[in-house]
Design brief:
Elements (H helix, E strand, L loop, with lengths): L1 H27 L12 E5 L2 E5 L1 H22 L1
């Protein structure tokens, strides 16, 4: 039971850290909004708006790949 509690605390701290980072990026760079980057597709028709955040997904993928690579490297 202790391991589950420890895992929940670590996940909570991780979510808090990601939330703080997203909040800081929004304050520091007001023009940077995920889904509105150059290269993200936006289709707007009367009554329908479709956002395809291609560049945002590529950046998130690179960021998560780097974080997971770093975690794996530190665990060695």
């Amino acid at each position: 039971m202790r391991d589950i509690g420890r895992l929940m605390v670590m996940v909570g701290l991780g979510v808090t850290a990601v939330g703080a980072l997203v909040w800081w990026v929004g304050v520091a760079f007001p023009g940077f909004r995920p889904g509105r980057l150059p290269g993200d597709a936006v289709v707007e028709r009367p009554g329908v708006s479709v956002y395809v955040p291609i560049v945002t997904m590529v950046l998130l993928s690179l960021l998560l790949t780097g974080v997971l690579w770093l975690v794996a490297w530190l665990r060695r």
